[in-house]
Amino acid sequence: MHVLVVEDEKKTAAFVRNALTSEGFQVDVLTEGDQVIPFLTSHPADVIVLDIMLPKQDGLSVLRDLRRSKNTTPVLLLSARGGMEDRVGGLDAGADDYLPKPFGLSELIARVRALGRRSIPQQPAGLQLADLSIDSITRTVRRGNRLLDLSTREFQLLEFLMRSAGRICDRATILQHVWGYSFDPGTNIVDVYMRRLRDKIDADSQVRLLHTVRGMGYVMREESTP
């Protein structure tokens, strides 16, 4: 599920992004209100977390513009003003939910998850490629008859690659969606985890599934060893 967070307070935006990413959401962050509609034209979201007090264009104005343009993406409004009139005003402007600041991250995650269930069909819990299968509910991974022991981060990485099977994923995309980094931390963490993952899923198998595409990134696809 893709979540767009629009928040100009950098610390709050980082906390929200990291919390949502750790739960498996794919997160983009914007800091100014007038960036939202242009961004959504090429990066559709399943849920928008929208702060009311924003530079360039306030959140309520952004929300009204979204609804006037027939954009029905669920919106969770964030505001330091939590009075009844403020909540009613936000909901009347077209918000689907309203969360006053300060808020608990667990509550925000629960509300985003609930809004997401309204906007997108439930993704299949099971994913399969050749004889590799993963179950997102039980967090189990099997290659043929082997039950693989993966760490939480390795599982998140594999799940992301499986949902992107056949498509080359560059390191920046992987860092953003698996680690929640919107910048290059200057480490080889992606390569290290890819080696670990390849050792676990492709060991002793005639059909290799995790491939390095030189100069581009990584891809999951079936390819027999010579």
Task: Lay out the secondary structure.
Elements: E1 2-6, H1 10-22, E2 26-30, H2 36-42, E3 47-51, H3 59-68, E4 75-79, H4 84-92, E5 97-100, H5 105-119, E6 126-129, E7 132-135, E8 140-143, E9 146-148, H6 152-163, H7 171-179, H8 189-201, E10 207-213, E11 217-224
Parallel strand pairs: 1-2, 1-3, 3-4, 4-5
Antiparallel strand pairs: 6-7, 7-8, 8-9, 10-11
Helix pairs in contact: 1-5, 6-7
Labels describing this entry:
single chain; 226 residues; Arc Repressor Mutant, subunit A; 8 helices; 4-stranded antiparallel β-sheet; 5-stranded parallel β-sheet; Rossmann fold
What do these coordinates show?
The protein is 39% helix and 24% strand. It has helices spanning 10-22, 36-42, 59-68, 84-92, 105-119, 152-163, 171-179, 189-201; strands at residues 2-6, 26-30, 47-51, 75-79, 97-100, 126-129, 132-135, 140-143, 146-148, 207-213, 217-224. It has a five-stranded parallel β-sheet, sandwiched between helices. Strands 6-7-8-9 form a four-stranded antiparallel β-sheet, covered by helices on one side. The mean pLDDT is 86.
